[in-house]
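Reminder to self: C-alpha cells first, then the designed residues, so the page reads top to bottom the way the pipeline ran.
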C-alpha cells in the first residue's frame, strides 16, 4: 500500500488549516510536518503549537520530521501536541537508541532519517526498534530542491534490510518527489512519498479542488508499479 504525504512546508501558511483539509479531501494519506531550527538546518519553520492547532482538523497521521539539534527536549512537546510519527536525524542525537526510546515512551511511532551522505550503518543496532525509515533525496532545509538520484540506490538497500528483518517498517522518501519520478521511486522500494512543492504548487489558489489532479496523477503513476 502506497501513502502520499504532502509536506506543509510548501503550503500557504496564511491559510494552513484549509491547505491541510484540502490535500486530505483530495486523497492524501498523511500530513508531513517539517520542523527546522536554524541550527541543524539553515531554516526556521514551525513547532508544537502549530501541530496542536492542526490536530483537531483530521484523524490522519501527522508525521513530524524533526530537523532539530539537540532533538530530545522537544519530543514530549510534539507527542502532547498530537504527533503520530516522530522522526529525527542521527546526527542530531547524542544517543540514538535513547531518542528512539523516548519517542516510543511518549506513545508515538519512531523514525530515523538519512541525509544523502548519512550511511545506512546507523541502522545496524536499531532497526528492530524503528517504525519508519526516511531517506532524504535532498539535503534537508528547504522545499523545492531537485531529487538526488543516488537516493534510489539507498532505497533499494534499505528495502532489502527491511525485508530481511520481517518487520513492518514504513520506507519514506522526502525531497524532489514529482509525478514524473514517483513510479521509479516506488520501484526502488519506497512506500510513503513526501511531496511539498509538487502538491502545494499545483492548480489555482481559488480552486477548492486544486489538489485533486496532482494527487490522482501520483496515484495513477503508482498504480503502474507492479
Ligand atoms: O524535509 C524536507 C526538506 O528538508 C521536505 O519535507 C521538503 O519540504 C520536501 O519538499 P519538496 O522537495 O517536495 O518540495
Ligand atoms: Fe521533510
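Designed residues (226 positions):
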Amino acid at each position: 500500500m502506497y501513502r502520499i504525504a504532502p509536506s506543509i512546508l510548501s503550503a500557504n501558511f496564511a491559510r494552513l488549516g484549509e491547505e491541510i483539509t484540502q490535500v486530505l479531501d483530495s486523497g492524501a494519506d498523511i500530513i508531513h510536518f517539517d520542523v527546522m531550527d536554524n541550527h541543524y538546518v539553515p531554516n526556521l519553520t514551525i513547532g508544537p503549537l502549530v501541530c496542536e492547532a492542526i490536530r483537531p482538523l483530521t484523524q490522519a497521521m501527522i508525521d513530524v520530521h524533526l530537523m532539530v539539534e539537540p532533538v530530545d527536549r522537544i519530543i514530549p512537546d510534539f507527542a502532547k501536541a498530537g504527533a503520530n510519527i516522530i522522526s529525527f536525524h542521527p546526527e542530531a542525537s547524542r544517543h540514538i537508541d535513547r531518542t528512539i526510546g523516548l519517542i516510543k515512551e511518549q506513545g508515538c511511532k519512531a523514525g530515523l532519517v538519512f541525509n544523502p551522505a548519512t550511511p545506512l550503518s546507523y541502522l545496524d543496532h536499531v532497526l528492530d526498534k524503528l517504525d519508519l525509515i526516511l531517506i532524504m533525496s535532498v539535503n534537508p532545509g528547504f522545499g523545492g530542491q531537485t531529487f538526488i538520484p543516488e537516493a534510489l540506490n539507498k532505497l533499494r538497500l534499505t528495502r532489502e534490510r527491511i525485508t530481511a528483518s520481517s518487520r513492518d517498517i514504513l520506507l519514506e522518501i522526502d525531497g524532489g518527489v514529482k509525478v514524473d519520478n514517483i513510479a521509479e521511486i516506488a520501484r526502488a522500494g519506497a512506500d510513503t512519498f513526501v511531496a511539498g512543492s509538487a502538491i502545494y504548487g499545483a492548480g489555482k489558489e481559488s480552486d477548492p479542488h486544486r489538489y485533486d489532479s496532482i494527487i490522482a496523477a501520483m496515484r495513477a503513476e503508482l498504480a503502474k508499479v507492479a
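Helices lie at 16-25, 48-54, 75-80, 96-105, 150-165, 182-187, 197-200, 212-223.
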